[in-house]
Amino acid sequence: MSAFQGKFAFVTGGASGIGRGLCEALAARGAEVTVTDVNFEGAQAVAESILRAGGKARALRLDVADGEAVTRELESAGRLDYVFNNAGFAIVGEVRDSDLASWRRIVEVNLMGVVAGSLAAYKIMVRQGDGHIVNTASLAGLAGMPTGAAYATTKAGVVMFSQMLRAEGVALGVKVSAACPGFIRTPIFDNAQYLRVDKARVLKHIPLPIIELAPAIAGILAGVERNDALIVLPFYARLLWRLMRWFPFLGGPLGRKTMADFRRLRTP
């Protein structure tokens, strides 16, 4: 029997991409899913699709940058077995082309949104004596991402926060994992903010393979079932992560090569 059978799962950013994939896969495995997103119509469409397929789901509008709203909705959700803090977006471009407002927004969503969801869920799960928090980070949070400094910075924060919360929660019955996938074929590429570069040209020059959503979701949920601290996938992501840990001096030349290639795409 699936570890998710009969469990209650709360997913942020559930209207598309990894969030939608998680909602559908969790429901197919027998979980009752709360699909949340700032795009309520999208969340509702996912929930209705799950219901038509015979699963259990409800939709909720939620902006994870509103910490009070996140806390309120989690506290009113009832029992929480799994909380997937997944909502986020990317900024692609050089730091010199960014501004403080963009940095504040991505930190509010990608990092503080995860912190808000985790804090509220953690307190509930401590009272319950069990539960599992899964935070969507990225390979970028482990190995860096030249051309995506803001994104990598927030995801690195998610990784460290998740590891520290896991250390605190283990004796209290609360599990915490960080999912760190490589490039996955999702709408994050369409929804990203591109700074002085053309999206189509950037997408043609992604240096690593883009994996399909279904196997990525299966890998993430398998890692959750194993209670992995870091769920790193696919194979090339695990390989790159280990290489950067064992041979950190490789980061310099790889970063310079990535930036040199990227600057040929940048609008002067």
Summarize the structure.
The protein has a single domain, classed as NAD(P)-binding Rossmann-like Domain (Rossmann fold).
The CATH architecture comes to 3-Layer(aba) Sandwich
SSE order: EHEHEHEEHEHHEHEHHEHH
What's the β-strand tally?
9
CATH superfamily: NAD(P)-binding Rossmann-like Domain
Strand arrangement within the widest β-sheet reads 3-2-1-4-6-7-9
Task: Name a few traits of the molecule.
268 residues, alpha/beta, Rossmann fold, seven-stranded parallel sheet, 11 helices, 16% strand
List the helices and strands and how they pair.
Elements: E1 8-11, H1 17-28, E2 32-37, H2 40-52, E3 56-61, H3 67-75, E4 82-85, E5 91-92, H4 100-128, E6 131-136, H5 140-143, H6 149-169, E7 174-181, H7 188-191, E8 193-194, H8 199-204, H9 213-226, E9 230-233, H10 235-246, H11 251-263
Parallel strand pairs: 1-2, 1-4, 2-3, 4-6, 5-8, 6-7, 7-9
Helix pairs in contact: 1-2, 1-9, 3-4, 4-6
How would you sum up this structure, described in words?
With 268 residues, this protein is an alpha/beta fold. It has a single domain (8-263), classed as Rossmann fold (3-Layer(aba) Sandwich), CATH 3.40.50. It is 51% helix and 16% strand. The protein is built from eleven helices and nine strands. The strands form two sheets. Strands 3-2-1-4-6-7-9 form a seven-stranded parallel β-sheet, sandwiched between helices. β2 (32-37), α2 and β3 form a beta-alpha-beta unit. The longest helix has 29 residues, at 100-128. The model has no long low-confidence stretch (mean pLDDT 96).
